[in-house]
Amino acid sequence: ATTLVVSTNDVAVSATYIPVVLRMLEVVNGSGSGEHWECSAVDVTADPDPPYKLFDRWSGDAVAGLFDAQARTTSLTMPTRDTWIAATYRDALDRVAGAYGRVFTVDGVATGVTASVTAGSPSGTPALQLGGPGIVPDGGFTAIETRVEGSGEVTFVWTVSSQSGGDFLRFLVDGVAITAISGTKQPWTAVTNRVEGVGTHVLRWEYVKNGSLASSADAGWVDDIVWAGDTPAPAFAPSIVDISAGEDVFGITFLGERGIPYRVDAKTNLSDAAWAPLAGAPTETGETYGVFRFRVDVALPPDQPAAFYRVVP
C-alpha cells in the first residue's frame, strides 16, 4: 500500500507484479526441507547431537542467508534458486575423554585432536587421538589440555604408535614433562600422577614430532581422564534420572562425573534445617556417550511414610 498525491492534471497509475516462485530446500542433518517461496523466512533446526558429538555450525550453498549460522535453530531467507544447507558437528572432547563437563582446549595443529572409535580403549569407548598419518608436520605438535584447581590426583590410560625415539606422546603438568612414551603401538597403560600446590594447574597431553621421518600410525591415544581433587570441584551439578522402588529399599540413579566423592543426604521434612548423610557411597554403573551414571540404594526406615533426598558432592 502507498499514498498518491494527485495534482491538477489527470494521472494514471498501475500496479506491476513480480512472479514469486517455489524453490526447493534440502536440509542435511536437520529439519526444514521442502518447497518454500522465494524470499520467505524458513525455520531450520539441526538434528540431535550424534554420540560423542556436539553441534558446531551450518554449512552449505545457502549459509549466507542464515540469520545465525552457529545457532542450532535459526531462520533462512529463501534464495531465488534451489539450494541446500547442512548441520555439522564437532567431536565432544570431554565426552570422548571420559571427563564429561570438563573444559579442554587444543593447541598446536588445530585438527590434530580427534575422536577415534578404533583405538581399542580399555573402556570400550572412543578415545582421544593426537596426530595421525600426515596430520602433524615434522617438527610440529598437537596437544590438548585442561585446567584443575588445587592439589589432587589425575589418572588416565594411553598408548602410542610412532617413530621410536623420535616422536613422542608426552604428559605435562604446568609445562613440566612428567612422562612420555614412543615407539610401535603397545598395550594401553594406566598412569597416575599426584599434583601438589594451591591455585590453577594445567594438565597437558601432546604428540610431538622431530624434524624428520614418520612411522607406524604416527599418533598417540588418551582416554579415561579422571581428576580427583583434594577439594572436590565438580564441573556440573549431579542430576537424578531414575528412582526404582522395592519393598523396603529404593535405588537412586544420577548423572555425575568420576573423581567426585558424591553422597546422598535425607530428611523427613523439607522445613527441617539440617540434612542427614546416608551411609553407603554411590557406585559407578556405566556411561552413555561420555556421561557417567551412579547408583545408591537407600533403605527406608520403618514407619517412615516419606523422605526427601538430594545428591551432593
List the helices and strands and how they pair.
Layout (H helix, E strand, L loop, with lengths): L21 E7 L1 E2 L2 E4 L3 E6 L6 E8 L12 E5 L5 E9 L1 H4 L8 E4 L4 E4 L10 E5 L9 E9 L2 E10 L6 E6 L2 E6 L7 E7 L4 E9 L10 E11 L9 E7 L3 E8 L6 E5 L8 E2 L5 E6 L2 E9 L8 E5 L1
Parallel strand pairs: 1-7
Antiparallel strand pairs: 1-3, 2-4, 4-6, 5-7, 8-11, 9-10, 10-17, 11-16, 12-15, 12-17, 13-14, 13-16, 18-19, 19-23, 20-21, 20-24, 22-23
Name its key features.
flat, mainly beta, 3 domains, five-stranded antiparallel sheet, 313 residues, Jelly Rolls, 24 strands, Immunoglobulin-like, 1 helix
Descriptive report:
With 313 residues, this protein is mainly beta. It folds into 3 domains: 22-91; 93-229, Galactose-binding domain-like (Jelly Rolls); 239-312, Sandwich (Immunoglobulin-like), CATH 2.60.40. The chain is built from 1 helix and 24 strands. The chain has one helix at residues 93-96, and strands at 22-28, 30-31, 34-37, 41-46, 53-60, 73-77, 83-91, 105-108, 113-116, 127-131, 141-149, 152-161, 168-173, 176-181, 189-195, 200-208, 219-229, 239-245, 249-256, 263-267, 276-277, 283-288, 291-299, 308-312. It has a 5-stranded antiparallel beta sheet, with no helix packed on it. The chain has a 5-stranded antiparallel beta sheet with strand order 9-10-17-12-15, with no helix packed on it. A 4-stranded mixed beta sheet has the order 3-1-7-5. The radius of gyration is 28 Å and the shape is flat. 27% of the residues are buried.
